[in-house]
Design brief:
alpha+beta; 4 helices; globular; single chain; 124 residues; 7 strands; 4-stranded antiparallel beta sheet; 3-stranded antiparallel beta sheet; 30% helix
């Protein structure tokens, strides 16, 4: 089953607008990284998503939800995250949720080292 099909079943699911492939590639270039396939799928279908207390970054005009803006800012505050991008800024205890190009999900807390917490967005 596609990640977008699973996510849309989450309680309180809502989204913005789909993103074109050119915009996704532009964001990857700005960050110097490649997004995971599942993240690209979410961007292509929904742009930005939220569900059950989670706001997953995407590509949009709102800086607090835009993956490029949030990632560039958080990279200044965290070490060893240059190949990661922000999935979610939780706004709880300085916890940031990151993802790498393989789809693994990491957490940093108070500018600490990234710790792998999940194998995918779906697992997260």
């Amino acid at each position: 089953m596609l990640v977008t099909e699973i996510i849309k079943e989450k309680k309180g699911f809502c989204h913005m607008n789909p993103i074109k492939e050119e915009e996704i590639k532009k964001a990857e270039k700005e960050l110097g990284t490649i997004f995971s396939d599942e993240y690209k799928e979410i961007l292509s279908e929904y742009g930005v998503i939220s569900y059950f207390g989670h706001e997953i970054t995407g590509i949009c005009k709102f800086k607090r939800l835009n993956v490029v803006d949030v990632t560039l800012k958080e990279r200044q505050n965290n070490s060893n995250v240059e190949n990661l991008y922000v999935l979610e800024k939780t706004n709880i205890d300085d916890i940031i949720i990151w993802q790498d190009s393989k789809g693994y999900v990491y957490q940093t807390k108070a500018s600490g080292k990234p710790i792998k917490i999940c194998n995918s967005i779906i697992e997260y």
